[in-house]
What does this fold into?
Amino acid sequence: MSDKKLDFFGKRKIFFGISIGLIVIGIIFNFIFGINLDIQFTGGSMISYTYNGSVNESELKSLVQEITPDNQVSFTISKNLAGNNDKGDGYYFTVQFPGTDQIDTEVQSTILQTLEEKYPDNNFELSEFTSVDPTMGTKFFVKCLTAVAIACILMVLYVTLRFKKIGGMSAGVMGLVALLHDMVIVYFVFVIFRMDIDSNFIAVILMILGYSLNDTIVIYDRIRENKAKMGPKASLEDVYNLSMTQCIRRTIFTSITTLAAITSVYVVCLVYNIESIQSFALPMMFGVISGCYSSIYVATPLWVIWQLRKKEKASSKK
Amino acid sequence: MKRVAKPVFFILAVLIIAFAVTSVFGIDTQYGDIVITRIKGIDDIRWGIDIKGGVEATFQPADGVDATPEQLESAKSVIETRMVANNITDYELYADTSSNRIIVRFPWKEETTNYDPNEAIEEISATATLTFRPGNSYETVDYAEDGTPVMKTPTGETAETVLLDGSLVESAQAGVINDNGQTQYVVSLEFNSEGAEAFKEATTTYLNQTISIWMDDIMLSYPTVNSVISDGSAQISGNFTAEEATALATKINAGALPFSLETVNAGSISPTLGSNSLYAMGVAAVIALVFIALFMIIVFRMPGFVAVIALLGQLAITIMAVSGYFPVFNSFTMTLPGIAGMILSIGMGVDANIITAERIKEELKKGKSVDSAINAGTKNSLSAIIDGNMTVVIVAVILILVFGPFNMLSFIFGLSTTGSIYAFGYTLLIGVISNFIMGIGAARLMLKSISGFKIFRNPKLYGGAKK
It folds into this structure.
């Protein structure tokens, strides 16, 4: 039984290739699509309404534009599946004000009044509105990133201390590399699905931060244990392959259950068309997959390579 | 091995299920029409405005005025008074002196059908008008959550006559006087010269009668005039506690603030959008739990079954910590990131059980007996679980420190409207702690206890080969 092991290390180049490929694709998409920071971070204003039935869209847009002639506003109209009633299908109508100016409360009430007068049968209602001061938005964003950075540093320190026996520092740094890998993947999910970087992004990043490193640590723990058992003569590749073989079921099972929980959130919110939760569950699903993948194929093989290098250097010095 | 006594499994299982049921449904007792919540359940959870819908706004003194901390505190007390007057109890309100801002967040009231966020924001941030009026007749009394009466809307002479307004008040301060050997808390008022004159006149006219002090539509205090006051400094005494005196002084000062508030940030989410997402989350949670339970029991059998019970326990503790099940802990506002924290901690809880179950399976395959396999399996898996959970604790603690009431980085970034991320750290930390209690502590005890029964000692139940 203990002899049966799969050759994970031998296939490392394929998996590094996959990771690098995904990142390259992400970067390309990033250049094509660009990325939108949500007004939570950039500052600015957005108002969203719900209505039922059909409305001439271009007429609706020009109507709103007339009310604020100074601002070139942009619009989106999307289906509100939960809002269907006897007056027809439900829709969301979102007005985004450009730049970082705050919009007047008067403008807001005028818009709603005009819409109600013009379309009395369409049940126009205010659904959401946000207005953020630009300096506060930026500060908040930087604060979030700082908190993430501090958490990263402390976690690497913890791993370095706890895994001294398997070259603490290298384990910590490679765990961090896997973390960055996952955060970048999550970022690309936001890019590819054209979602704004908002507080959901921060929440997903935070969750992946915990999930990814936990996954990596469980494997490190097995390596630490096997290394002690197999003695100093065993090759690192063997230790890694054996540890991975033993851990793979657990890693996959854990990911399946976590993924299932998040997927059910996603699917239900898709049915009810709750966008705020969808845009939080979808990247989280990818983050969990990436977190599972990176601890198997990024963090630990890189750690093996680092350790092998170190050994080589030590022996060439002799 | 040292086996755990057989009844332990049943005692723990019953306890956990009892906790889980009460944490979800709460315990209410009913006397006639009055329902009293004995233990808070899931319905009593305070949902953040991103889930339930509500208003969030940040204010600052208009025209770039730099308010002193006391002035900001006064401005905050205005908003507080208005919240209480409108019977909004679950609001969050902070004054941030470093960035000169006041942040308020409150959900829509249950019965609100006609919600207008702009109106609501303007209403709460409007400049407070402080008035001194003769008599103390009022129209209505509401009761705040803590039972204190809120007297609203002046009537009769009180409504018709205004003796002084807030602009004539220089300052109000809480203080202590020694009244015949008895310590008494009082509020001292200082008027400016114009105010002193007006107050002299008022106290002459209404000597030995009542003069009431109002903020907007709400009566703050109704002292009786004991003597004519001509020097522009008065004292209000009564059976104040220290807090009451301070609160009154702060409110009176608010009427004399030299600035108005302007809205910096504002946001609102409609209650329909909110209630919808709440229902959807409930559906999703049930589906996810059923799937996890089936998966664990089918794949891991006995350890899986025990894990499901432990998981219920972990969930129950998290819900309790949020809903305020134990009166010692305050209830907590639950937001979307808070739910993310819960999902992560449940993932970690499931993980802890999977690691252990896999280990037990491995030990059985090595040919060990059920007893020693459980023993070795639980022992060998401990370090991985602890190390994994500790790193998550680090994340959670950092978030709580940075975004919570401690505001670790606020000297650089200022206090921001980030209650939602604090919620992530909070639920995550609670989740991980309950994982230690349930997923690691209780699950292991239950497993060792149930394996003491002969019928439960078949290695097949633990993923091992047939005997």
